[in-house]
Amino acid sequence: MEKKAIRISDMELISDELKNLLVSIGTLKKVQADTFLFQEGGDAAELYLIKTGLFQISKLTSDGRELNMRICKADDIIGELTLFSTDAKYMLSALSLADSEVLVIKKESLEAELIQNAALTFEFMRWISTHLRKNQSKIRDLMINGKKGALYSTLIRFTNSYGVQTGEGILIDIHLTNQEFAKFCAATRESVNRMLSELKKKDVISATADGKIIVKDLQYLKNEIGCEDCPISICNID
């Protein structure tokens, strides 16, 4: 029997009171595919709750490469890292991968509401802290383990977010090109092609007829990067 990874959205991680607050002060906005909702370095006056669609969250590295940080879906919150900061700038960019709808939440409106409720403020800041830990762990994997370690870490994270346990191994049940994988590692497509080919030769991974990756030896990937077995709440691609 197949066993699929359970993806937990941001809205499932917060209280009903905080959910209701976000929805009550949000206004609906449509976003066309292949357009930026916000870009790194831009003035940050809003955060967003995704209603429908798909967004790629990324950051530019010091050498100008694009590093994908997250793939966000319905009920995820994006643009959240600027709350309670003066002259805030977006730390990341959000590109729509499909026609989408979001609730636009004015930063100053949310801050004004939270100031009146210490418990909700604490909850929201604790939730932001979890996202910062996720981002830091991804950047750490790249810095410490290099491009190969970043790829192995990315594969592990995808198994936690989109993995389906099959008889052959863990199917990563999402379509990704090697170029898209490369952006999660701040690497070139050519280097990712080479590393994936090496993993196939070692029988660590295989591929389905439609190009999805099956991880056959997850422990090999973990051993190669000295995996600390972080909780799935941190080690994921969402």
TrEMBL record:
Domain HTH crp-type residues, every copy: 145-219
SMART domains on file: cNMP, HTH_CRP
Keywords: Activator, DNA-binding, Transcription, Transcription regulation
Annotated ranges, domain Cyclic nucleotide-binding: 13-111
GO MF term list: DNA binding; DNA-binding transcription factor activity
This protein's GO CC annotations: cytosol
DNA-binding recorded as keyword: yes
Superkingdom assignment: Bacteria
InterPro entries linked to this entry: cNMP-bd_dom, cNMP-bd_dom_sf, Env_Response_Regulators, HTH_CRP, RmlC-like_jellyroll, WH-like_DNA-bd_sf, WH_DNA-bd_sf
Any Pfam family the entry gives: HTH_Crp_2
Protein name, per record: Crp/Fnr family transcriptional regulator
